[in-house]
Every structure is written in C-alpha cells, then in structure tokens.
Amino acid sequence: MILTDEQFECLGLLAGSKKPVPAVELTERYGTMEIDRMSIDGYINFVDGGYEISFKGKRLYSTQETEIENQRKKRFGL
Fold first, then answer.
1. Res 63 pLDDT > 50
2. Of 20, 56, 66, which is closest to residue 36 (Cα–Cα)?
3. Are 24 and 15 in contact (CB under 8 A)?
4. Is the Cβ–Cβ distance between 55 and 38 less than 8 Å?
5. Rounded to an integer, what distance in angstroms lies between the CA atom of residue 20 and that of residue 74?
6. Model pLDDT, residue 33
C-alpha cells in the first residue's frame, strides 16, 4: 500500500499519540483523506517510531515488517 504525502503528513501529526487511532478519526480530523477506504474497524497503531495499519483485526501494513524485508533483500541480494 502506498500512502500519499498528505497521508504521511497526517500520520506524522498523530505519531505522538502512542495509541491506536481509528481511521475514521483521521478523516474527521484531517478532512476527506482516507487510507484504503477503511471503516471504523480500521486502526493505525504507532509502535517503536513507526506504525502499522490494521483492518478488522488483520494487519495490512507495518513499517517494521517493511524495514525487516528491506534488510533481508539487501543481505541476500534480492
């Protein structure tokens, strides 16, 4: 999933909260921005300087997993 600059900016503004933020709250606080058209069941959790996005209990995206995958690709030359 690719986030727009506006979405990253909004994530940055919320990063200090250190608690799950309902995706619907993002649109209420920051206008019509949506993250993958999530409903009230979508959450953004801020963890260890990054974030993960979940929907109905399933993790859709995690900055930590992406970083681990990138390190593995570098190590094995993929």
1. yes
2. 56
3. no
4. yes
5. 31
6. 45
Residue 47's beta-bridge partner residues?
A: 50
Look up residue 32 and give its two tokens: 């019509």
Q: What is the DSSP letter of 66?
A: H
Nearest to 34 by CA among 60, 3, 61: 3
In DSSP terms, 53 is beta-bridged to 44, 61
Q: Are 33 and 7 in contact (CB under 8 A)?
A: yes
- Segment 11-23, tens digit of pLDDT: 655 555 556 666 6
What's the pLDDT tens digit per position in 35-57? 444 444 566 666 666 777 776 67
In the chain, what are the domain boundaries? 5-76
Nearest alpha carbon to residue 10 among 25, 28, 30: 30
